[in-house]
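User: Predict the complex.
Assistant: Input components as received:
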Amino acid sequence: MMGKRIRHLCIITHRLADVDAYCSAYALSSLFKRHARDITIVFPAGLNAIATKVMQHIPLDVTPLIIDEVRDGSGANGNDVNSGSIISERDVEYIVDVLNQYDKDDLILIVDTNNPVMLAGISEGVARSKARKVVIDHHPIAVEASMLGIDEMRVDVNASSACEMVYRLFKEMRRRLSRDVATALLLGVLTDTQNLAIARCSTISMVADICRFTSLEECRSIIAVERDYSERVARLKAAQRCRLYRVKVGNAVGVDSNSNSNSNSNQSLIIIAVSKVGSHHASAAKALIDLGADLSIVVSSEGSIAKASLRSTQSFYARTRLHLGTDILARISSAGGGHPTAASIALEMDEEGLIRSILQLIKERLGRLDPL
Ligand SMILES: [Mn+2]
């Protein structure tokens, strides 16, 4: 993909870029600086808080385009027209127009996602563009990805992060890592592996190589966050309002949950925690796991949109093979998905309805849920 010269290059991350997405875009823009005549970097709906902090430490040398999400203004949903900060449609049209002018000599790189839903309003523009399109990602390939007309999928679900995929590209192109690029790649790996807690051996050997060019200690301090007041309140309220369920499952894959015999030596008890918060639902879901739940479901809502964050332990996944992204949330809507042990969704629905749908799918896979 990198053999020939590129005229325009556009790098696009998933909506609300996280550290891995931002750092992949950062490293790619450095990698292609000499190959492309100009580079455009697009963050649909902007960046999350921690990625914004990372951007201050290692700023891009091209001005990134932050695209406001298109809000659905139709229907009487009681939205305050003066709530401001919505420039959306014009911005989306702008980038769609840019991509429309691209041709075969131009390149679109989509990083850290292959799901068009995560590109918000930009996906149509990508789909219609005549540019070469390459996806660099570590998430399972979404069926909807085919609508984008991708020329090359560089997707490895065993990679720790999109940054690990970008690192492989540096090696392939025999390019040395600058200190800033090494810092970026390491930050992406650290955040997507929970500070290496879930890293594989292959990731550790890559980290050892990257550490020749940057400081692990410094990277840790960049992403170390003191949780703010509202997040701490959300985590505590999630625990306070929590509903608990118990499920009996076998240890083997393909659980026979109908078994009522006494031969339950290989059965184990699973605790599911369900809660609601006003904000920070992802952090709250993680907090419930830290407290001891095997699986947590935390919802919050914004207007008519309900959001849910699901988390589970590695041991829950090993015991049940229940993939929170593909087995649960992607089955509720194409807007949902994620990893085996961490997934999220946002859709037009009420909170209770969303919880019911999620619990129903869990019940179908694991069997009866007993309230605790
Ligand atoms: Mn990632």
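Residues 20, 112, 138, 161-162, 192 surround manganese (II) ion (CB under 6 Å).
Let me know if you want any component modeled separately.
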